[in-house]
Backbone:
């Protein structure tokens, strides 16, 4: 009955009943209904619930702060110079080629690939019409 009422599994039902002094009846644990209700009321108003709610509130606040920090300062995939913010197609790093329907990027290391992709993305953001011009299929 405890499992059904609280929508929990057998193990959790036993944990809820344990402080209420259950008795064994065959292979089942039983507790008198009125004693169980009094015991539950005591649990809800007791220190355990108070401290558990405080703990949950602290965890929730910490997760909220962490989420806000992550939103304000997202992870940096590649260290880029400030000059890259004003990147243009005329001065893209060597190894980036654009043509009708194609983009080719040559790189030696993973970090170099990330830098070149960032430079291309910044150039596209600064002049999307020029990107369309350079890559338009003929």
Residues:
């Amino acid at each position: 009955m405890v499992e059904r009422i609280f929508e929990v599994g057998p193990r959790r039902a036993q944990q809820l009943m344990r402080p209420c002094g259950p008795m064994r009846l065959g292979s089942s644990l039983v507790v008198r209904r009125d004693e169980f209700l009094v015991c539950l009321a005591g649990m809800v108003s007791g220190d355990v619930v108070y401290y558990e709610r405080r703990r949950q509130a602290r965890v929730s606040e910490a997760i909220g702060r962490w989420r806000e920090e992550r939103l304000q300062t997202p992870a940096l995939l590649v260290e880029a110079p400030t000059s890259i913010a004003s990147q243009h197609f005329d001065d893209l790093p060597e190894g980036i080629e654009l043509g009708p329907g194609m983009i080719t990027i040559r790189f030696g290391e993973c970090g170099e690939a990330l830098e070149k992709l960032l430079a291309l993305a910044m150039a596209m953001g600064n002049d999307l019409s020029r990107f369309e011009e350079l890559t338009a299929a003929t």
User: Anything to note?
Assistant: The chain has two domains: 2-72, 82-135. The two ends are 73 Å apart (CA to CA). The longest strand covers residues 96-99. The helical segments are 2-6, 10-17, 33-45, 47-72, 110-126, 128-135.
